[in-house]
Amino acid sequence: xxxxxxxxxxxxxxxxxxxxxxxxxxxxxxxxxxxxxxxxxxxxxxxxxxxxxxxxxxxxxxxxxxxxxxxxxxxxxxxxxxxxxxxxxxxxxxxxxxxxxxxxxxxxxxxxxxxxxxxxxxxxxxxxxxxxxxxxxxxxxxxxxxxxxxxxxxxxxxxxxxxxxxxxxxxxxxxxxxxxxx
Length: 182
Known about the structure:
Blueprint: H1 2-29, H2 32-41, H3 46-57, H4 77-86, H5 100-117, H6 124-134, H7 136-142, H8 151-157, H9 161-180
Helix pairs in contact: 2-3, 2-5, 3-9, 4-5, 5-6, 6-7, 6-9
């Protein structure tokens, strides 16, 4: 009787693990087409956009941050309106970025802009991600001495541990997604 009980318990655990894995995999896949389209439009690697979506909202399009950022890529009002202006959208409200398509387009536009901002560095990605997370003013404070152009020195000077962790989390997930998501 004990052997049968252990076998049943192991089967239940295996089923639960499999269901959890499938649910997580499915959750991470459902916006792939939108992410690819937005990344393509703004000439970004789709794996990078997906990594930002993962970190910002964990793929929840209804996500709302403490500072008013919303949607998959957690866009602030100013960034969303900047994108809408570039697209010449006359009747745009910040709440429109709850739509996953709109959000990934606006977020990708903004991320591409930030990456272009730091092209004079050895690797614009850490600078752009820190800017996305903590704002340009903070990035400019951290860009002193060698950190002006050296991304390793820059990351060491990032004054917010949460921003440093944010940059490292996204770059790590980006490396994972690059292997399978194009």
